Each structure stands twice: as C-alpha cells, then as structure tokens.
Amino acid sequence: MSETVLAQPETTAKPLTSKDFVTDQEVRWCPGCGDYSILAQVQKVMPTIGVPKENIVIVSGIGCSSRFPYYMNTYGMHSIHGRATAVASGLKASRPELSVWVVSGDGDSLSIGGNHTIHLLRRNFNLNLLIFNNQIYGLTKGQYSPTSEENKITKSTPYGSIDHPFNPLALALGADASFIARSMDRDPKHLQAMLIRAQEHKGASLLEIYQNCNIFNDGAFEVFTEKSTKADEVLFLEQGKPLIFGAQQNKGIKLDGFRPVIVEIGKDASVEDLWIHDERDFYKAQILVRMFDDPTMAGHLPRPFGVFYETDRACYEDVMALQIEDAIAKKGKGDLDKLLRGNETWVIN
C-alpha cells in the first residue's frame, strides 16, 4: 500500500523590495523637497533589515516630515505635535518585538517635543529616531526653528533671530544617547548606510539628517552637498580610520590637546599623527559634535558626518520586562485596587 504524500505549503516568502513599502497615497511635499530623497532611502533600506513588514511601525509628530507614515506601506501613526517620541515609547514598552521608527523635524523634536526627546534618549528604548533638520519651520511657512543660525531673518524674526541654536547631537550626548549619527538628504549611499547602522544598534538611535527646504530655507546645507565644495567641507567618520578630508585627500585633523586642528598631510603631519576615529570614545565624541562652525568663516573645521558615538546600555523595555517578571515570581499577580488604595489612609471626622 503506497503512502499519500501531501503537498507542502510554500515556506519561502517572496523577497521584499522597495516597492513593497510604497503606498498609493499622493506624496504631498513641495517639488524638490529633501524629504523625497529620505523617503526613497528608507524604502530601499527596509527590505534589508530582516524585519517582517507587519512588524515595522513609523510614528511621527507634526510638520512636513511627519507625513511620512502615509507614504510608508507599514503600520504607522501620525501623532501630535512633539509627542511622537512619547507615543513610540509606549508602543515599544507594550510591543517590544516591533521595529519602531520615529520621524520628526527640528521644530517638532527640539522645540515643543524637546523634553520628550531627551527622556527617550535617556531611557534608551530600542528604537530609531530620525530628525529631519532643515533649520526652519516649513509646514507653518517659514518661521525660525531651534536649529536656525543666529541672525536668521524669517517671518517671525524680521530683524534676525537673537536665539542661540541647539546643536542636536551635543544635546543627545548630554542626554546619554547610546547612538548618535549624522547624514544628509543628498548623499543617498551614506544615508542608507546610516539608516542600517541605526537599525542594527540595540538602544535608542538618533540620526540627524540635514534636509533641504527649497521653499523657505533653500541651500542651507549646500556647502556640504555641492560637488565643488563637499570634499573640503565634509569629514566622513569611519571607525578605526584617520580623519582625512579634502579634494585631494591631503588634509587631516590632529588633536592639539583637546583642540582639533587642520594639518596638511606630508607637510605638517603624517597619517600616523592624525586623530583615529573611535565610535566608543565618549570624550572625543563631545569634541566631534562641537565641530559646528559657521561655514562662511575662514579657516573653519569641516562638518563631520557618520557615526559619532555608540555604546552598549540596557534598554528600558527589557529592564521593565525583567522587573515585572521578578515581581510576579515573588508576589504573584498584582492587585490594582490595592495599589490604588495605597498604604496610607485617613479617617475624616
């Protein structure tokens, strides 16, 4: 008697492509906006991170960048102004298996949402925070933002801004972020690499992305993106590599005490004399994030891009799960009514 062999179900899913993350929604950003490039790079990266599409969530706040969830064929939430980080924290605490991405702008995350941002980083939830920094309020039509340079003339500062701007990565280091990096909208390959690095890190990853607002702040980062100036203005950080830049790759950064200085390789110093980048060096990371000169000044330092700092630290949701597990093992299931009543009572005559 022969055995009947049942057909086995197909177990190998069709590999995902960037098209699988494109929605049928009309993309409503101004033509030429840097957000288009960032969206394209995120869609290209998502199939490579090894996470099922149904386990990816995009959470945004309010602003031009915050329309992102509509254009990503994943789960998502367009939340409220400045509170995307709070919403994402609650989601990650309750569903730790999800890959959570927070998309926010410099106004949304550093002004009304600044407090939530620093506490997200401090708590170290295992999620990714993308800050689209265009140094302006785009959605509300061109007011200065927390990252706008001093003396910035805008609709809300007709005589020039007198505010001192935030340095987002310095702020993140102060909040004990476990991963900080910077990229730009007009360098697709570098941006893809930084998105992957952010996803690979276990903990809160902050990736600042320079994003051009061609309507209200066009050319704010042109010196870092244009072919004629990029080589001399941008310093790409690579782990274990000396800090070298320049069109001829003949310039380097050397530390004079705690002060970075530019040297000409072969004339002022050798390659062996240069600063070797170490992503685990917290103290040197603080120097790197402060290489934040006005690009119009003579003799200024190049702007670093890449991973500035990464460290290992326990994630909030993991510690919370262990605490709950330990409490249940010791005391059994909790009594909510008893908890709400507390241990102190008063009798009112």
Describe the structure.
With 349 residues, the chain is α/β, with parallel strands linked by helices. 30% of the residues lie in helices and 17% in strands. It is built from 12 helices and 11 strands. The protein has helices at 35-45, 68-71, 84-94, 106-112, 114-123, 168-174, 188-200, 222-225, 227-233, 282-289, 316-331, 336-341; strands at 56-60, 75-78, 99-105, 128-133, 179-184, 205-210, 234-236, 244-245, 251-256, 259-264, 303-310. An 8-stranded mixed beta sheet has the order 2-1-3-4-6-5-11-7, sandwiched between helices. A 3-stranded antiparallel beta sheet has the order 8-9-10. Strand 8 (244-245) and strand 9 (251-256) form a beta hairpin. Helix 1 crosses helix 7 (188-200) and helix 4 crosses helix 5. The chain starts with 34 loop residues before the first helix and ends in an 8-residue tail after the last helix. The mean pLDDT is 93.
With strands numbered from the N-terminus, the spatial order across the biggest sheet is 2-1-3-4-6-5-11-7
Please indicate the percent range of residues in DSSP E strands (runs of 2 or more).
15-25%
According to DSSP, the number of beta strands is: 11
The CA-CA distance between the termini, in Å, is 89 Å
Q: What is the helix/strand order? A: HEHEHEHHEHEHEHHEEEEHEHH
Helix-strand category: alpha/beta
Write down the overall geometry.
globular
Main sheet attributes: strand count, strand direction, barrel closure? 8 strands, mixed
Helix content: 25-40%
Chain-averaged pLDDT: 93
Helices, by number, come to: 12
Extract low-pLDDT stretches. Answer: none
Report the radius of gyration as a whole number of Å: 24 Å
